[in-house]
Q: What sequence folds into this?
């Protein structure tokens, strides 16, 4: 008789503890999602793509932040699954309209595929959010360069240099553009800048 009562007591305690555990888990869902996001970011910075994906996929899709979708996109891109990456970047933008990195990465996707108009559109959206990022303007310049629109390429390379004049490639491409525009003196100036920056590395 004592044994039976003891078993009933243990069963009741287990049910009670299970209910408390479920209630506790429900109340910390958002904190848990936030913690998973932080861990995923840390693993991504260590190039651990499998763990990054695993952590983000544990977050309910509706609770994923723009940063979560961006990380998923980056993982897909690193794995060479670019169409999947673009889908994730678009989800990042849906979640966070100011996610300039998603626009930037979509721009890179189109630039690499020779779809220069689409690349410029996405880089331009990124530049409206992050107006002082030199690499956005550099890539816009590269897209215009591919279209042989040298004046617009020059304007964007100049903006890139205005925000960061220590990147050799910025000066080299601007020298090339000036050469194409038959402005040899300016071309030489930026080529000299390029050579100096490279020698200082």
A:
């Amino acid at each position: 008789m004592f044994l039976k009562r003891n078993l009933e007591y243990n069963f009741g305690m287990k049910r009670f503890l299970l209910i408390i555990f479920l209630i506790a888990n429900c109340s910390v869902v958002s904190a848990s999602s936030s913690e998973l996001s932080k861990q995923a970011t840390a693993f991504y910075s260590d190039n651990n793509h499998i763990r990054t994906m695993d952590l983000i996929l544990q977050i309910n899709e509706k609770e994923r932040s723009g940063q979560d979708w961006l990380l998923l996109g980056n993982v897909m891109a690193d794995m060479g699954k670019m169409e999947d990456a673009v889908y994730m970047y678009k989800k990042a933008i849906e979640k966070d309209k100011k996610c300039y990195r998603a626009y930037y990465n979509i721009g890179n996707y189109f630039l690499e595929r020779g779809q220069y108009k689409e690349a410029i559109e996405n880089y331009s959206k990124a530049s409206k959010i992050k107006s002082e990022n030199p690499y956005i303007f550099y890539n816009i310049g590269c897209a215009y360069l591919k279209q042989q629109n040298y004046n617009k390429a020059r304007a964007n390379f100049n903006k890139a240099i205005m925000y960061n004049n220590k990147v050799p490639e910025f000066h080299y491409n601007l020298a090339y553009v000036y050469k194409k525009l038959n402005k040899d003196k300016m071309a030489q100036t930026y080529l000299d800048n390029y050579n100096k920056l490279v020698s200082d590395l």
